[in-house]
Amino acid sequence: MKKNIITGFIFIIALLLFFFGFNFLKGKNLFEKDNIFYAIYSNVDGLKNASKVTIRGMKVGEVLDVNFTNEKAELLIVSFSVSEDYKIPRGTIAQIVTTDIMGSRSLELRLPQEVQSGYLVSGDTISGGISKGLKDEVSAQVLPLKAKAEELMFSIDTLLTATKAVLGKDSQTNLIATIESMKHTFSHLENTTGKLNKVVNSEQQSMQSILRNFASISENLERNNDKINSILHNVSAFTDTLTQAGFSSTLLEAQQAIKQFTRIVKKIEAGEGTVGALLNDKQLYDNLEGATASMERLMTDLRLNPKKYVHFSLLKTGRTVYYDSPKPISKKNEKNYRIKIFHSSEPIKLSNPIFKGRTDIEEVKLKRRKGYLYTIGYSSNYDKLEKIVKKLRKDFPDAYIIEDKQ
């Protein structure tokens, strides 16, 4: 009986040791209390029960269970434990990652950089995520190589097709013909080279003569080296003399004079100054031309009728002209005046365009010399006629006042 009790006691101790040892080998510490958290995924990609839960590579817990959230198997919920020694901030992401080349999966807790909303408590749900596995990474690296390999295979296939076309019967015939043509070309080239050698041999004496001439020229240059140096020295001295004589300053002054002349020409073209106004102002030119024409007419009239200009009076009485007038004879010692606008040796119709349509023009026949005067106005008031003549000169620039002598 005593042996059975001892055996039973030993069995219980062995069972407890096995239980504790098995959990120890699994990484569980039965004396530590863990917090339980949950994460939801659409695909766990091989994550199993008892898979490690790590923070920056350090194991802090393990996966407890992986199950579907409902009967439709739309999502999976993963429950995992984390030691009470580690506080998990809110905003942490439970990321499924690959741990080795065999594709084993574990759960990595990726903590936020800053704790802003406190810490999670046991029973909370954490946001889940999944990283690419080794297979996905290898596929991403292999796909570009696969595309390049396919391009290489296509290029090789094109090359083989072209080679096959070249090695065809027609291509072989064309290739043989091309080789024959090249053979003939080289043969002609050889003949041409032979002819060129003959020409060189026949003209060898001429070439030697040319070379002798070159040698003679070189000797002459060498013999006259001092003279050449003297000429170069003289040229240098001449340029130095020009420099010392202020040739550069003379050129500079010439350039400045040309610039000033250019500015003057530009001002003239722009109509600035007297010359510019004379060249560019058409009205001024017309006025000068009109004044010249008036002066010419005045000189002609002065030459033909000198008495008209020689007579003068010390008083303000105007020019004196004797003529037959239909006007009544004035009182004794009373002077009358007219405004002469035109003079002619022959009578002119009053409707002539030179009178510019005026109806107050009067024709007067001269008494002492032949000719006719054409006048406007008749008054003893000289100042009144002077005002009128100023207005008339717009149409008749040569108009002036004359004294009426009947």
Number of strands: 12
N- to C-terminal distance: 194 Å
Q: What class do helices, strands and sheet pairing give?
A: alpha/beta
Order of helices and strands: HEEEEEEEHHHHHHHHEEEEHE
What is the residue-averaged pLDDT? 79
Strand content: 15-25%
The main sheet comes to: 7 strands, mixed, barrel
Widest sheet, order of strands: 1-4-3-2-6-5-7
Helices, by number, come to 10
How would you describe the shape? elongated
Rg computed from alpha carbons, rounded to a whole number of angstroms: 65 Å
Helix content: 40-55%
Q: Spans of 5+ residues with little confidence (pLDDT < 50)?
A: 311-320
Overview of this protein structure:
Helices cover 50% and strands 21% of the residues. It has 406 residues and is of the alpha/beta class. Among the domains are: 1-30; 32-131; 311-405, Alpha-Beta Plaits (2-Layer Sandwich), CATH 3.30.70. The protein has a seven-stranded mixed beta barrel with strand order 1-4-3-2-6-5-7. A hairpin with a 2-residue loop joins β2 and β3. It is elongated, with a radius of gyration of 65 Å. Residues 311-320 have low confidence and may be disordered.
